[in-house]
Amino acid sequence: MDHGIELAYIGLEIPDPSTLDVLFGEVVGLVAGTPTPRGASTWRDDDKAQRIIVEAGDANDARYLGFEVAADGFDAAVERVRAAGFEIAEGSAAEATERRVERLARTTSPWGVQVELVAGLEEVEPFASPTMPGGFLTEGVGFGHTVFATTNFDEADRFVTEALGMGQSDWLDMEIMEGVELHVRFYHCNPRHHSVALARPPFDLPQVLHHIMVETRELDDVGAAFDRARASGLAIANNLGRHDNDAMFSFYVVSPAGFQVEVGHGARLITPAWDDNRAYDRMSRWGHEPIPAP
Ligand SMILES: [Fe+2]
Fold this sequence. Notes:
Helix content is 17%, strand content 36%. The protein is α+β, with helices and mostly antiparallel strands. The site of fe (ii) ion has 5 residues, from strand 9 and strand 13.
């Protein structure tokens, strides 16, 4: 099922953006892009100008999430948001320049992150990373996936499905400790198994952003990134493992800002006649156990 939109970028606001340089640049193997006109740091995982934007500020969380829409579907995508009952406004020329897009419209998601529909995300020189020789899988599937935790879960679910038109891939119900249930729903808008997932925590967490995932083209690049993560001294939230629902082989490293980055490979794709929207009761087939910091 292809809804014609892709995850374009995520914007973070961190007190000191340079604290993410080692993780993004040296561990994950992203490439630094040109800073934005307002001075935000940018990171690339393919030929696009910017995929992760890091601004200096107190939020210590995700502030905005961009979805790229084909230019001829832009007005319909904006109207779909409005028809679902959410306010959406066309961005200014300065905002479009800051995001390096041709068009931009913005609304606020029920989990508090600004969602931006954009067209014409700028391309720059071909992606080449010395630490990620195989590059990242983004063509037709967006830059990766993002997972948010929100107690405003039902409205967030309605926003993702009705306003953004995403399809539910499947969901996870598991007991993470005695009496504490974790509920996560996974949503697709192109062949990537999920571009967004929403978790329902028992109470509000300090960050709504749980993790950002980038998918390598080569399996060995996950292992090499895992070695670099271990050597960096950053905490590994989850060891190497394979998820049950999307079958992603991955690990999770904890960023200095608290949210996590999942580096993965080999997730299964959504097919045109997806009929596997069902419950899972475990996160992983094997692995993914927490590892204490070295
Ligand atoms: Fe993930």
